[in-house]
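Shipment paperwork, digital attachment
Item: protein structure file
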Amino acid sequence: MAEELTPAQLRRLEAAARQAAGNAYAPYSGFAVGAAILTSSGKIYSGCNVENASYGLTNCAERTAIFAAAAHGERKLRCVVVYTPTPTATAPCGACRQVIYEFGPGVRVISVCDGKARTDTTIKDLLPGAFGPQDLA
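Attachment content:
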């Protein structure tokens, strides 16, 4: 089961994800995304999508946030919140799901938007049959 968070933690995560979307570099898609993650140390890291003219080099908000946390020595996620300025909530892409699983195989993933819709699930539900570090043993 996904970890329970306090309403205050959830509000801070959502606010950080929304704020991060404001920093998105999305000149090609126009689709700004923000993400915020809560780590096991209690710190919040945020990230935005950063596009590139060579589309394959684009980095999603979720991975930007996770990589920032990893660069600071964080290795365990407690929660991921993704914000998109859309009327419906948008789930992480496949690449992001794999990276989320790497650092939080049981983590809670919440997607929020400008509308009332939201999703609240786990990475295991988003990525069934996932391949992770435990499979390398």
